[in-house]
Amino acid sequence: MALDAPAPASRGVGVTRMVRARAAVLEDYESPLQVQEVQVAQPGPGEVRVRVAVSGVCHTDEHVIRGDLPLPLPIVLGHEAAGVVDRVGEGVTGLVEGDRVVLSWLPACGRCQACRSGWTGMCRATARAAEKGTLWDGVHRLERDGRALHVMSLTGSLSELCVVPREGLVRIDADLPWREAALLGCSAVTGYGSVAHAARVRAGSSVTVLGVGGVGLHVVQAARLFGADRIFAVDRFPARLGEAERLGATDLVAAGPGAVTEILDRTHGMGTDYAFEVVGSPATIAQAFNVIRPGGTAVVVGVSAPHAEVSVNAFAFPSQGKTLKGTWYGSGDFAQDVAALVTARHAGRIDLGSFVGDACCLADVNDAFDALRAGAPRRPVVVLDASL
Amino acid sequence: MVFADTDEVYRVLGSFFESLIDRPQAALIHKVGGVVRFHFHNPEALLAWVPDDPAVTGRDFHVVLGDGQPPALLAFEQDADLANRFWQGRLDLAQALSRQQIRAVGPLSRAMKLLPSLDEVYPLYPDHVRALGRPDLVVPS
Predict the structure, then answer these.
(1) SS3 A372
(2) Domain that holds residue B124
(3) Are B48 and B69 a contacting pair, CB within 8 Å?
(4) What confidence score (pLDDT) does residue A71 get?
(5) Per residue in A40-79, pLDDT tens?
(6) Measured in whole angstroms, how far is the alpha carbon of residue A299 from the centre of its chain?
């Protein structure tokens, strides 16, 4: 529960009235997160302060901890969350205090060249802010003892309170459990969108999913939702393959150099119509490209190290008409995809609850990351406010 | 090509690297934990940050120019023109890596930890090149 007694006026953040909250802060790379008392500002114009109910932990947060993603420190991690509107800033419409919301870590400013061109998933304002660990225009809304704190991708949801742009919130109904709602903020939308928008999987098609962890399992489920006839799940953890089978995978393949040959053998040498790489490694990206049939499409979902390079056969592009493409956050419209997922969930066409793994409190946030690193088949989550 | 020859790369970028020895960023360079090599093209030049034992030498690293460098833990390869842009904050490293304008071999994450602190360093480079009589190397914002 947040400690909302007013804190002393802030000099560094530019807003005088702050409230206290607890947050998981990364002070140094390759170090455990520290749960600290922080001060949270009032939301500015166009911003909303959210009381976070549940936040998932994601491999992208882990990339920051390891220093693979050079975000500035100290930083509040977490970007996959749902909560309640605590306070709205000036000019905010469509949301009131008490509304239940899911957070997007890629809000679209609507003004940059990318947004105006329709590429809201490549919003330049958000990319710049995310790189700097701030909100748009370099704003900080969290601090500790007068020192500004950075936030993960305009969210920083491993905090009892966070301040986000209005554009980064989607309202949800009250009958969606918080733990499921939180996953809509990243893994569910990314997995679903990869299938729906990046690949546009058709009914009756065949699909390979390389990596069936948190996001990959959503890819498997979405492929089934869109009518894929055959779904090959590839992973090195048997428990994850078991989950993939439960969600609709028809064929289970052990990860390794022989995975492509095995799938080719099972498809009469053709390969699959689509392949999704959900690991983030050059080797499996190459496998995704190699396993698709002539004319097929391979979609890279996994996040590699920024200097990683992949080697594929150049002649295969023209001679086999293959497509190799990427997707960022599922390449769709966040609000529409959340709505589609919620509708499908309520209709029983997809399952979100079984994706939720062990839950812990904020004090035990490092245990959640340990579970993630150990290859937990389900998404570890952190409960920030059990009273919601 | 903004640098006339290899010697000019060493005169400008080599001396700038040496100026970092006295800056707070030197400790982060030391923490990379090994030799960081820069292989520039057009013109060809090799520069390296070589970590020292501060207790012995009183500094976190030193700069080696040209051949005869110790084996590198982390190596960058790029056009010298892009290095000129990078050190004044005019090159997005993530974009340059993704477009293979810069290639890196080795544990890049160790150097990436240095990146946020370079915001303090970038403004120094234009003054550095002006002092060397090369104001033309400053990239307009």
Answers:
(1) helix
(2) 6-134
(3) yes
(4) 87
(5) 999 999 999 999 999 999 989 999 998 888 789 999 999 9
(6) 16
Spell out, as residue ranges, where chain A has pLDDT lower than 50.
1-15
User: Strand, helix or coil at B81?
Assistant: helix
* B1: in domain: no
Per-residue model confidence (pLDDT) at position B111 = 85
Contacts of B115 in chain A (CB under 8 A): 70
Report how far residue B83's alpha carbon sits from residue B129's, in angstroms, rounded to the nearest whole number. Answer: 13
The reply to whether B62 falls in a domain is: yes
Domain of B14, CATH number, reads 3.30.1050.10
Provide the shortest C-alpha distance from residue A342 to chain B (in Å). 35
pLDDT at A17: 83
Contact A68 B94 (CB under 8 A): no
Residue linked to tokens 């949270």: A40
Best mutation target among A63, A307, A311 (most B Cβ atoms within 10 Å) is A307
In a domain, B84, yes or no: yes
Token pair in block for residue A80? 């996959």
Structural domains of chain A ordered from first start: 6-184+352-383 (3.90.180.10), 191-328 (3.40.50.720)
Contacts of A29 in chain B (CB under 8 A): 109, 113
B102, B105, B113 member nearest A67 (Cβ): B113
Q: Is B115 on the interface with A (CB under 8 A)?
A: yes
pLDDT digits 0-9 by tens, A160-174: 999 999 999 999 999
Report how many domains make up chain B.
1
Task: Work out the minimum CA distance from A12 to partner chain B, whole angstroms.
Answer: 18
Angstrom CA distances, A327 to A109, A145, A231, A277, stand at 20, 39, 20, 10
Say yes or no: B141 contacts chain A, CB-CB below 8 A.
Answer: no
Task: List, for residues B86-112, the tens digit of each pLDDT value.
Answer: 999 999 888 888 889 999 999 888 888
Which of A29, A72, A305 has its CB closest to that of B108? A305
| Residues of chain A found within 8 Å of residue B101, distances taken between Cβ atoms | none
Q: Name which of A68, A73, A309 is nearest B112 (Cβ-Cβ).
A: A68
ipTM above 0.95, yes or no: no
Residue B56 lies in a domain: yes
| A214-263 pLDDT, tens digit each | 899 999 999 999 999 999 999 999 999 999 999 999 999 999 999 999 99
Residue in A126, A33, A123, A125 with CA at minimum distance from that of residue A73 = A33
